[in-house]
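Researcher: I'm preparing a figure for a lab meeting and need a structural model of a single chain. I don't have an experimental structure, so a prediction will have to do for now. The sequence is pasted below. Please return the structure as tokens so I can convert it later.
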Amino acid sequence: MNPVVRLKVKKLVQEAKLPRYAHVGDYGDLAADLYASEALILEPGSTVAISTGIAMEFPSTHGALVEDRSGLALKGLTTLAGVIDPGYRGEIRVVVTNLGTAALDVKSGDRIAQLRIVQRIQADFEEVTELGEATRGAGGFGSTGV
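Model: Understood. Here is the structure written out token by token.
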């Protein structure tokens, strides 16, 4: 089992819920649930930022990605702009779009997204005139027949 990363979470509103994993242990969840701290109706085609009512403190070595929940994705709810950098200390808000044909009723306390904790890796980008050969080559999106 990997070492536990301790993250500080501050409730900005009393009714906020801390992120939590539904399943833990060796075969536990990859991401923790994020909860809405407000109620709203998300009309088809609309994009909003849903408040979670929490702020977090990440160590400099980690950040997070906000990801879709499978059940909500089937209803057309998808997340956007979901990168949380280690230095960010503001409220975690989940930007979502309703791609479905029906309005979605979000209640305070509903699970709205998943928070995947990631290790931060800083790369050096070097401009070159040629790249090494690879089996895939320049084949891009859809080149594997999917």
